[in-house]
Design brief:
The complex is a heterodimer of chains A (about 290) and B (about 400). Chain A is mostly helical and about 290 residues long. Helix content of chain A is about 75%, strand content about 0%. In chain A, strands 1-2 form a two-stranded antiparallel sheet. In chain A, a hairpin with a 4-residue loop joins strand 1 and strand 2. The longest helix of chain A has about 30 residues. By secondary structure, chain B is an alpha/beta fold. In chain B, strand 3, helix 4 and strand 4 form a beta-alpha-beta unit. The chains are: A mainly alpha (about 290), B alpha/beta (about 400). At the A-B interface, helix 1, helix 9 and helix 10 of A face strand 7, helix 7, helix 8 and helix 9 of B.
Chain lengths: ~290, ~400
């Protein structure tokens, strides 16, 4: 029983990591109707910016805020410079561009910051909780993920700009006719996704340790989480991420060898795509053709 | 007079031909060696994910340059051709073929990484080109029967496991052992080495868990290992996952005797990452002098190494373990080439490399020497155990051999 609880809770802890990155994926999908494969690497790069600031003796939360601002601006620049030219190209072109971004950020980080493992400070105290089932760091990641979720939920449902962004992503032509500046919405969407990614990176770096390949493995699990929950739903992304974290631990412990944990994630992706392409909480997007 | 002169000229000409013919018949030179030069090839990840190891190639080059400035090896200058393979095996193959077929090097020395070396293993052995002292500790480099042109240098991963096994058998005879290992050749070498070393008592291993380098964390594996009831844990993992493992073991209140593979025993990376206080009591193994350990810093050996590093413009790397390892690598190469004398054929290079007899190197731990023979291509078979005290590693006990008494 103790083993079971341990596995569930450490699954929740890694699930929260997946969920935080999955949120960024959902953000960009809702804002731009695109899947951004470079999301993980952008988050990693933002984390390096925070790391540089912290090393330059900037207080943690100030560095955090500054990183969010820098990432927001950086995300917007990327959209303007790199994504905008392929806006009207087939979706495959955009996918290839994001994969290119993935490689660029990875290599750039390696070149600038080296591939040596870096320690990253955690804003949360490092204490075991609930009979050593979780540490306060894990709890911090879960809490921050939930706060981000709440903010996103409110943003998309109740703010004008959030609604305008959804409209711009789902039906650019009609949105434009309603007076929404579609181009600007897309730019802001990328900026926000980059900032959410930065938050995710900063929260998980103390647990995963910072190196240019930090997000490589995480991205795949985050995708699974986002797909499982429904790529259009922030709530779904978080629940999906947590489910993936717990499932891989339990299946890895009780059913198959832990070598196959990654396979579990891939099988989940296939099952979701075949049987419920909109995920658990996603809405089917119907387009008139 | 003219006749005499002609006779003399003729005789000396014959003499020259005979002398030249003798030299030729003795087969003194293989490809890449002449009266004035020895050409050596090498691949290094100067860029890419493993580029932090590039320092090894830089130390090699600097040391050869120093030897050349001092007059070379038996009067011959070393021409060290070191190229960047970015740790990418296909690139290694391309570069090594180029070095063997176009540059015509005598041998390949100290190429870095298990996958790059695996990629050229067959090619070099098929073409009978020495692949000496690769910068990787995989056991497969010690297989003189099937690969007589490849020789290990680092204590192999299984050598290290054997040493842990001997310690466990002696000091923790009733231990229940759990193993966390990376799911590839490197991790499995450690696991199999431990099984081998325990011999008849291999059933002391009660649980094993592996991880993939794509796994975000190894928390789940550690939890599963704890549940097995083990009281000894061997961590055969690279720094990122080793740090996570040590931290998780501490956080869940498990208190096994922990053994950490030397691949990941850097204080600045693994131990600091895990949290220094969480690694107190962890045991690892060493075979060279840690350049940050104050106990060596007043010895002439350390000072000589430091002077070499500073003079070569490598002052930034004087706390890097890899610079010490590289220094010892290249000294071994120089010793082998010196022993070759004027017979610089590929065959003789392998013969001399396989005839090391208790070779001492200044920056290896006292008592550790290199020995090889025709059927033993594993030069370093001893290590010394060390324990982490929350700040640094402290050597304890004697230098231990992997096998024998």
């Amino acid at each position: 029983m103790h083993l079971f609880l341990q596995q569930v809770f450490s699954g929740l802890a890694s699930g929260a990591i997946y969920a935080s990155l999955a949120l960024a994926l959902v953000m960009i999908y809702r804002a731009t109707d695109l899947v951004n494969f470079a999301q993980g690497e952008m988050a990693m790069f933002s984390t390096y910016i925070a790391w540089m600031l912290v090393n330059a003796a900037v207080p943690f939360w100030a560095a955090f805020a500054l990183t969010l601002v820098i990432s927001f601006i950086g995300g917007m620049i990327i959209e303007r410079v790199v994504i905008r030219p392929v806006e009207n190209a087939p979706v495959l072109a955009a996918v290839v561009v994001t994969i290119g971004l993935l490689l660029i950020f990875n290599a750039l980080a390696g070149w600038l910051f080296t591939y040596t493992l870096q320690e990253f400070p955690s804003p949360f105290p490092d204490r075991p909780l609930f009979g050593a089932l979780l540490t306060s760091r894990d709890l911090g990641v879960i809490a921050v993920t939930l706060v981000m979720l709440a903010l996103l939920f409110v943003f998309f449902r109740f703010t004008t700009i959030g609604l305008a962004m959804r409209a711009a992503a789902q039906n650019p032509a009609s949105a434009r006719l309603c007076g929404i500046r579609v181009g600007r919405m897309l730019t802001i969407g990328w900026g926000l996704a980059a900032a959410i990614g930065a938050t995710a990176g900063i929260m998980v770096a103390p647990i995963l340790f910072l190196d240019p390949n930090m997000m490589g493995g995480v991205l795949l699990y985050a995708f699974t989480g986002a797909l499982l929950g429904g790529i259009t739903s922030p709530v779904g992304a978080v629940i999906g991420g947590l489910i993936v974290g717990v499932t891989e631990n339990l299946v890895g412990t009780y059913l198959i060898a832990s070598q196959l944990k990654l396979t579990v994630a891939l099988i989940l992706i296939v099952i979701v795509l075949v049987f419920r392409p909109n995920g658990l909480f996603g809405t089917a997007i119907v387009r008139r053709v | 007079m003219t006749v005499k002169h002609t006779m003399l000229a003729g005789l000396s000409a014959v003499g020259l031909i005979v002398a030249g013919g003798l030299a030729y018949a003795a087969g003194q030179y293989g490809p890449g060696a002449t009266d004035t030069e020895i050409k050596i090839g090498n691949t290094m990840p100067y860029s890419g994910p493993a580029s932090s190891y590039g320092i090894i190639g830089k130390v090699d080059a600097a040391y050869f340059a120093m030897i050349n400035a001092q007059g070379g090896i038996n009067g011959r200058k070393v021409n060290f051709i070191s190229r960047d393979d970015s740790y990418s095996p296909p690139k290694t193959v391309e570069l090594v073929r180029q070095m063997v077929e176009q540059d015509k090097v005598l041998l390949i020395f100290n190429s870095l990484g298990t996958p790059p070396n695996m990629a050229i293993h067959g090619y070099l052995n098929d073409n009978k080109v020495p692949q000496l002292f690769p910068a990787t500790g995989a056991d497969q480099w010690n297989d003189p029967k099937h690969f007589p042109w490849t020789m290990l240098w680092l204590p192999s991963y299984s050598t290290e496991s054997h040493i842990y096994a001997r310690y466990i058998l002696k000091n923790l005879p009733n231990a229940k052992i759990a193993v966390l290992y990376q799911n590839d050749d490197y991790g499995k070498d450690y696991l199999n080495g431990l099984r081998d070393g325990l011999g008849a008592k291999a059933n002391m291993i009660v649980a094993t868990q592996s991880y993939e380098t794509s796994d975000p964390t190894v928390d789940s594996q550690i939890v599963a290992l704890q549940a097995s009831g083990a009281d000894v844990l061997l961590i055969a993992a690279i720094p990122k996952f080793a740090a996570q493992a040590i931290r998780k073991v501490y956080d869940i209140g498990w208190k096994p005797t922990e053994f950490l593979n030397s691949v990941a025993n850097g204080v600045g990376t693994t131990m600091k990452g895990a949290g220094l206080e969480k690694g107190v009591g962890v045991i690892s193994a060493a075979f060279f002098k840690d350049p940050t350990d104050p106990q060596w810093q007043n010895t002439p050996e350390y000072k000589e190494w430091l002077a070499f590093m500073n003079k070569s413009g490598l002052s930034a790397n004087v706390t890097d373990n890899q610079s010490v390892v590289a220094y010892s690598f290249v000294q071994t190469m120089v010793a082998v080439l010196k022993a070759c004398g004027n017979d610089l054929t590929r065959e003789n290079v392998m013969k001399q490399a396989a005839s090391l007899h208790q070779l001492k190197l200044p920056m290896l731990l006292p008592g550790i020497t290199l020995s090889t023979s025709a059927d033993d291509f594993n030069p370093i078979k001893q290590m010394q155990l060390e324990k982490f005290d929350g700040k640094t590693w402290n050597l304890f006990g004697e230098v231990v051999s992997a096998s024998g008494s």
